Amino acid sequence: MSTVRVLVGTRKGAFLLSSDGKRKRWDVSGPLFTGWEMYHLKGSPADPNRIYASQTSGWFGQIIQRSDDGGKTWHQPGTPPGETMTPEGTPKGESNKFVYEGEVGKHLWYDGTPHPWEFKRVWHLEPSLTDPDTVYAGVEDAALFRSTDGGQTWHELSALRSAKGNLWQPGAGGMCLHTIMQDPNHPERIFIAISAAGVFRTDDRGKTWRPMNRGLKSQYELPDPDAEVGHCVHRIAMHPSRPNVLFMQKHWDVMRSDDAGESWHEVSGNLPTDFGFPIDVHAHEPNTVYVIPIKSDSEHIPPDGKLRVYRSRTGGNEWEPLTKGLPQRDCYVNVLRDAMAVDSLDSCGVYFGTTGGQVYASANGGDSWTAIVHDLPAVLSVEVQTLR
Amino acid sequence: MIRVVLPAHLRTLARVDGEIKLDIEGPVTQRSVLDALEARYPMLRGTIRDHVTLKRRAFIRFFACEQDLSNESPDTLLPDTIATGAEPFLIIGAMAGG
Description:
The complex is a heterodimer of chains A (388) and B (98). With 388 residues, chain A is mostly beta strands. Chain A has no helices and 29 strands. Chain B is α+β, with helices and mostly antiparallel strands and 98 residues long.
């Protein structure tokens, strides 16, 4: 029987939530890495026992953790104590070394002045679709790194920052590269998204990149609302069967592209507010999309104190609120951009975590919800592995 | 023999309990202590000082003999009581962190 494993990153550690295919009873294990900010954990599609985790701290910086046994045990890749070199001559202790390649350069700072790139943390880890040892890391200040040795060493795909990086700027959460999507039909194609720079695409495995932001409008955020770069894209999503169709939750506006990001059009439709952070697509219905509207960029709370997931079965524009099992009064939590995911069981499961420490699950595509846990630290990220 | 006390999170990363004891040849300075520490525990590289610049991370402090030595030159000799192991060299997560 299939099972699911939900990987939850929080402000004070990581948790693994496991259930069988019914998704009624859950086993909660953790906290792992207690006290550390766990920005993201994600399993390899090619080997579900291989899980990568980003562990960060204001004191001690960035750590990469890896499990090769489905989360039972963890280690920093390539760093056993007492040995400084691998048999191949590679220095150890490199798994937490993220160094920008070439000239560091400058982006725009909060006040609009040039500011040099400074590495702060890994926001998102995206394992390769086919190779467990290859994994991408999206970092703050925004850049994309790749490891091909299971996270032991990292190298920047530095051409990305040549795509008008001098005009990128931080969003409220920092200048983070938060979304990495690999096109299953075109292995050389990768989409990434940065807040606040926009969407970028490579068609040659990272050698060159293009901004893909035509159609985005940021009227009160940028001096030129239609600028080629600088947009505060919060999240993008795709269905693997239809990688040319992309969905986006922007700072304001829910957007859709039908041409692999060449152009975007708004599909906010009847949403109560088109501000929000996460967006995801149903595992079996490429036109079914989920968002969680948040009142505004200056408030970051659910409208009217009601936590509602909105679902569109039409690829946008027509949205229905999903409320069964979710608090409909006095609820003022937020849901962050990496904190929603879907499983691929026959009846698609949808999961999201809140800054109030709840992780909600729906085993029926969003029709009804239950809280797996109520009182975790603030949830930063939620990923799901469907194990068969 | 130099005694080094790590904060709890770094002891977890290094998989050690209690104090660490290091043998250092030559002058005993912040730099030589950290070099020896990172050589034995490579997983600590980047957690106390930057990988490339080797500058102390902003929220790390170095205490010894009831003194804050954080802003001393990394090549300044540490007190004799540290060099002889009479007192430990303390690596601290600043109160402002966490």
